[in-house]
Amino acid sequence: MPARPEVAGFYDKRTGSIQYVVADPEAGQCAIVDPVLDFDEKSGWTATANADAILAFVADKGYAVEWILDTHPHADHFSAADYLKRKTGAPTATGEKVTEVQKLWKGFYNWPDFPADGSQWDRLFADGDSFAIGGIPARVMFSPGHTLSSVTFVIGDAAFVHDTLFMPDSGTARADFPGGSARALWASIQAILALPDETRLFTGHDYQPEGRAPLWESTVAEQKARNTHMARYRTEAEFVAAREARDRTLPMPRLILHALQVNIDGGRLPKPEDNGRRYLKIPLDLLEGAPWDE
User: Fold this and answer.
1) Are 91 and 68 in contact (CB under 8 A)?
2) 27 — phi, psi (to 5°)?
3) CA of 270: how far to CAs of 139, 142, 253, 267, in Å?
């Protein structure tokens, strides 16, 4: 039987994101997965409330942070990876295909000098790479579809599936961002559902359908039996048609243009200009065709 790490989820109501601390309590070591740096687009203000809550939890447990992990460059929140590295000294990591996302968005932001080589992270994981949290073995599954670079971290009996599968009543993630692919998403989900039935799956978002309380943990068996998309669309063709039709109705995330310029840089905010202030760059008329919010 695989080792069973301790997993604590931290829900961010503003973005519907779940951040995780996954730990080997016996070894006193942990990793932080997909941390959120707070940002209010109305005022332009940043804060570290989410990340500081995680740090307080880790300190209370007496854990040493061994890794800071991002499953992909997020489109709906800023990553707190850089902030947490500065606070803990722990190395940062993501999937090696992040360089493909960097090359794409480097062009969108017109940043000819941006280093699209993944050097913003301490390690870039390839498909099948292994590492450990304390004494608990971990491995990396390349899981594209939602983005070009998405990975799943399988740590003991727990898999952190980011934006592939949501909770069973919410289905699957969208695949219409630049570089996304519903066909690739189908293949990634099939690989995740091929894990042992008892594998615990931890999703990256929950939008509380019908107002229920936020949830983020399921199992492979539960997803196969009850996922509203995977239980209904049994073939790749059916899934791709349904996913693409659904995606055409979805407005873009409200922070996508804000967040990608931070997240392709490993969670670093733009450098201050000569007046000491930082500025985001928002390309106009880039993501055409998406419906607007009412």
Assistant:
1) yes
2) -85, -15
3) 32, 29, 20, 9
Amino acid at 30: C
* Amino acid letter, residue 17: S
Half-sphere CA count of 85, side-chain side, radius 13 A = 19
pTM as predicted? 0.97
Total H helices, total E strands in the chain: 7, 15
Q: In this structure, are residues 156 and 3 in contact, taking their beta carbons and an 8 Å threshold?
A: yes
- Report CA-CA distances (Å) from 53 to 12, 32, 50, 216, 224: 11, 12, 5, 18, 34
Please, are residues 78 and 39 in contact by the beta-carbon 8 Å criterion?
yes
Pair type for strands 136-142 and 151-155: antiparallel
At 158, the pLDDT band (50, 70, 90 cuts) reads very high
Q: Which of 289, 292, 272, 288 is nearest to 280 (CA)?
A: 272
Query: What crossing angle do the helices spanning 256-263 and 98-108 adopt, rounded to 10°?
Result: 120
239 burial class (0-12, 13-18, 19+ CB within 10 angstroms)?
buried
Residue 46 confidence (pLDDT) above 90: yes
Q: What is the pLDDT of residues 231-268, one digit of tens each?
A: 999 999 999 999 999 999 999 999 999 999 999 999 99
pLDDT tens column, 167-219: 999 999 999 999 999 999 999 999 999 999 999 999 999 999 999 999 999 99
